[in-house]
């Protein structure tokens, strides 16, 4: 979703361009209007703008002066100048300021649309280049970002001595120094847990950082890492030409500018990487004195405000909020998740989990700590089920990668628990089918070896099951009754024994469990359409 700013001191021109052109076909969903260069600069300070159309001749500040300022402060904005014939040579001079295109007034609608369409394609192409796979992979292989990330993690968590910092900062080519003004920004990806593997997360980090570098490069140095919580942490330092005294404070315009860039970053990640992220920005502080405190405050904001939210932006001037303290009662009510899973009451387990998830979503200002509590209970039930069945949970769900995923929001908990439960259910169903197949094979093997005295009761005793249960199970699995199978196997065996003329018919009858030869003859005739003697005579 792109946005455009139209600037002209003639209201009719602005209104016509804003409302009569089909900008939506290029993905331009927001069109801002300004009737002077001053109004345009105010809009640029307040909103994210991708394209700008400006008249070259306006009172007080010309279009050229406006675009010169835009190119200095908002380098990514594509600029188009509208020029009358009298200013044609003047318009040519504008190319020195980085004007993308200029059009002679009055320009036809088709000409304007063609120019804007070309610039939109340029914007997309530039961002695609920024996040291209080849560039990401080549950057990923470099060791320096890994070393920088490790140092920043240590600085955030345990701290690093000044002597070490003094040695490592220049060694790692980090343009940060003692008493620099810094701001900490944390980006939380709202990933779908089953969708991304560890390698994808690294590539996503590098894509986000490349976009951030492009956006912040003119005014800030950036230093980044992925922390122990799975968040992407970016420390920003103002570049020397706009740097202040190192007091740890930034004026309101600088704070506002940084917040606007952070908002644009969040939007571009969604637009070009198709990922939803939350962004939290700290207040300004002094390096390295304040970095741990700034980071700690951001983590506090995430835990207290974002456990039940996604795609949020929190500026650094928000007060810390006290998290709710009430426990998740439904998790501990009987029957517990452990009991439901152990007895394979899948529907009841899903229902209880859905109730818990719904209540968490409805709880205002749910803390991340409560999400972790719920995650611990749910994951504990999965581990309990697996280990009680003498299996590793990683084997049941197809690997350990999904077990190591960080779950920090209610949505992630819901996705993760649903994915895990489906894997466990599928595995249980497969094992149940396998165990039943093995049981049927065992019963048939017993019958084949004991045709003389085989019966439903003796077969059930052989596999330690109740005869009624075995009868129902066998019928459900094979489609025929167990007694029917025994009868068929006896008839097959009888037909085979008939080939040996040395064996008397009554002996065959007795060996197969038929004490009454007349009865044996009767059922043999029902099976083969002739008596045992007639069957033997035709062999």
UniProtKB/TrEMBL annotation:
It comes from the Bacteria. InterPro entries: CheY-like_superfamily, Homeodomain-like_sf, HptR, HTH_AraC, HTH_AraC-typ_CS, Sig_transdc_resp-reg_receiver, Tscrpt_reg_AraC-type_HTH. GO terms for molecular function: DNA-binding transcription factor activity; sequence-specific DNA binding. It holds the Pfam family Response_reg. Residues 441-538 form the HTH araC/xylS-type domain. It is found in: Cytoplasm. GO terms for biological process: phosphorelay signal transduction system. GO terms for cellular component: cytoplasm. Residues 3-120 form the Response regulatory domain. CDD domains: REC_YesN-like. The modification 4-aspartylphosphate is found at residue 55. It comes from Paenibacillus sambharensis. Keywords: Cytoplasm, DNA-binding, Phosphoprotein, Transcription, Transcription regulation, Two-component regulatory system. This is DNA-binding response regulator.
């Amino acid at each position: 979703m792109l946005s455009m700013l139209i600037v002209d001191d003639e209201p009719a021109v602005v209104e016509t361009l804003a409302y009569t052109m089909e900008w939506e076909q290029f993905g331009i969903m927001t069109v801002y209007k300004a009737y002077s260069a001053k109004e345009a600069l105010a809009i640029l300070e307040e909103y994210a703008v991708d394209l700008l159309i400006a008249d070259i001749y306006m009172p007080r500040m010309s279009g050229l002066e406006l675009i010169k300022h835009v190119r200095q402060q908002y380098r990514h904005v594509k600029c188009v100048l509208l020029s009358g014939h009298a200013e044609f040579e003047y318009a040519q001079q504008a190319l020195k300021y980085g004007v993308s295109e200029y059009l002679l007034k009055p320009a036809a609608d088709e000409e304007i649309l063609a120019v804007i369409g070309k610039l939109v394609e340029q914007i997309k192409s530039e961002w695609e280049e920024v996040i291209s796979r080849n560039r990401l992979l080549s950057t990923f292989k470099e060791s320096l970002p890994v070393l920088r990330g490790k140092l920043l993690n240590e600085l955030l968590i345990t701290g690093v001595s000044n002597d070490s910092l003094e040695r490592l900062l220049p060694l790692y080519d980090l343009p940060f120094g003692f008493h620099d003004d810094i701001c900490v920004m944390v980006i939380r990806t709202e990933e779908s847990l089953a969708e991304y593997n560890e390698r994808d997360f690294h590539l996503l980090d590098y894509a986000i950082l490349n976009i951030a570098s492009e956006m912040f490069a003119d005014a800030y140095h950036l230093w980044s890492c992925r922390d122990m919580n799975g968040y992407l942490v970016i420390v920003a330092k103002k570049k020397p030409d706009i740097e202040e005294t190192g007091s740890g404070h930034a004026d309101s315009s600088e704070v506002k500018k940084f917040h606007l860039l952070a908002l644009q970053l969040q939007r571009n990640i969604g637009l070009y990487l198709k990922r939803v992220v939350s962004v939290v920005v700290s207040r300004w502080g002094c390096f390295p004195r304040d970095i741990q405190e700034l980071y700690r405050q951001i983590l506090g904001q995430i835990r207290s405000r974002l456990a039940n939210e996604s795609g949020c932006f929190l500026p650094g001037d928000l007060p810390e909020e006290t998290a709710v303290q009430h426990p998740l009662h439904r998790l501990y009510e009987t029957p517990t998740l452990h009991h439901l899973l152990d007895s394979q009451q899948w529907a009841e387990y899903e229902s209880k989990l859905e109730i818990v998830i719904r209540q968490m979503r409805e709880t205002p200002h749910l803390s991340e700590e409560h999400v972790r509590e719920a995650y611990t209970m749910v994951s504990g039930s999965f581990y309990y089920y697996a280990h009680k069945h003498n299996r590793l949970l990683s084997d049941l769900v197809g690997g350990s990668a999904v077990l190591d995923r960080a779950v920090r929001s209610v949505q992630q908990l819901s996705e993760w628990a649903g994915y895990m439960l489906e894997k466990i259910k599928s595995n249980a169903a497969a094992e149940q089918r396998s165990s039943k197949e093995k049981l049927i094979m065992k019963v048939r093997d017993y019958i084949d070896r004991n045709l003389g005295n085989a019966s439903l009761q003796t077969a059930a005793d052989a596999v330690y099951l109740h005869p009624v249960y075995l009868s129902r199970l066998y019928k459900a699995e094979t489609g025929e009754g167990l007694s029917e199978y025994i009868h068929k196997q006896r008839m097959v065996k009888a037909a085979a024994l008939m080939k040996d003329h040395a064996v008397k018919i009554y002996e065959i009858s007795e060996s197969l469990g038929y004490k009454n030869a007349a009865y044996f003859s009767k059922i043999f005739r029902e099976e083969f359409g002739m008596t045992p003697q007639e069957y033997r005579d035709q062999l």
